[in-house]
Design brief:
The protein has about 400 residues and is an alpha+beta fold. It has helices at about 5-15, 35-50, 95-110, 135-140, 145-150, 160-165, 195, 235-255, 290-310, 330-340, 355-360, 385-405; strands at about 20, 25, 55, 60-65, 75-80, 115-120, 180-190, 200-205, 210-220, 260, 265, 275-285, 315-320, 325, 345-350, 365-370. Strands 3, 4, 5, 6, 7, 8, 14, 15 and 16 form a 9-stranded mixed sheet that branches. Strands 9, 10, 11, 12 and 13 form a 5-stranded antiparallel sheet that branches. Strands 1-2 form a two-stranded antiparallel sheet. The model has no long low-confidence stretch (mean pLDDT about 100). Bound molecules: glyoxylic acid and manganese (II) ion (2 copies).
Length: about 400
Amino acid sequence: MLRLDERRLLGALDELASLGAIEGGGCARLALTDEDKAGRDLVVGWMKALGLAVTVDAIGNVIGVRAGTENLAPVMTGSHIDTVRTGGRYDGNYGVLAGLEVVRALNEAGVTTHRPLAVAVFTNEEGARFQPDMMGSLVYVGGLGLNEAYAAADKDGASVGDELRRIGYLGPTKPGAVKPHAFVELHIEQGPILDEEKVQIGVVESVQGISWTEYTVTGVSNHAGTTPMRLRRDAGYLAASVNLFARKLAWEMGGDQVATVGSLALRPNLINVVPNRAVFSVDLRNTDEAKLKEAEARVAAHIAEVAKAERVEVEAKVLARFEPVIFDAGLVDRVEHHAKALSLSTRRMPSGAGHDAQMMQRLCPTAMIFVPSVAGLSHNVKEHTEAADLAAGAQVLLNLMLELADEEAG
Ligand code: GLV
Ligand code: MN
Ligand code: MN
């Protein structure tokens, strides 16, 4: 069996993590920043050194293709290398670099597959700077128009179009020009399940639905000492109330429902002034679309009720909304098969995080392979996966890609 070189994979992860490195061992490579450009340049250099034909499309997705003996649709893997501002070194990066190690292993063994292989780096998966998340893969599958994506702006008003141009990654290729035979994304779990249960490989069957809304609340600022409670129109109060409500709602609904207020800004943000403005986000997720809709409706009803009582105005802006996604059953079975064939323990599970694979499922049969995250930490500088687990996941990817690359039609 062709073996993947674990030490080289770890070395590549270290080198990429040195770009945008932050205290504690993590990374800050927000999409389309100088740090993201540096990461992209490094990965593109590696792709070229491996002999891949590299294209950059109009949303900045980078696709490296290794030719097969036949000019058929390629077997594609990949993920993203942008991070949240306080990110770890594995989220996304692992899937991309493992893909490159698959190519390296084949190059060194002198193996040419029947179908081409492709490794993709998708733009702005995180959605931490520009929304929606999974932007590059969403455009790739035709779910978002280029002009709409270009117009997305960060909190300082910089747009995706301008930033792509600035860092030199607004490429000439049409997104989605390459329609894969299959897409397989290798990723860390980013949650506690595999680590708690001491299971080596997560066989991902689905991705939960995601609902991101930004609320802007307008009240009246006034003196904190002189304004009686009955006269307040406190924008911060509504934000705080929604945070508490969302937590209670998630507990009450149970199951897979999660709810987060991850971003909150008050104005004027002073100790002795009632806030006249609050801008906050609500992130709701559920594997069940009906339940996700219920959570959205209940949050909206709570906001309407508090806004009326507090006499504040609320504007809601949907930043991202994706229904739950079910992966290709046959491909999911094959992930499990290849893990078991390597004597690795497996568990079927949904993904709690969003992934480029959930968009690619619209285009071709898609599946994901998860490896454990120590203590379930992710979007945290302490994000960690043991070397043996990283190697095991990459080996499953290699074996599955080889099998898929041998397939004829379909
Ligand atoms: C994106 O990676 C998300 O799940 O928040
Ligand atoms: Mn990710
Ligand atoms: Mn992430």
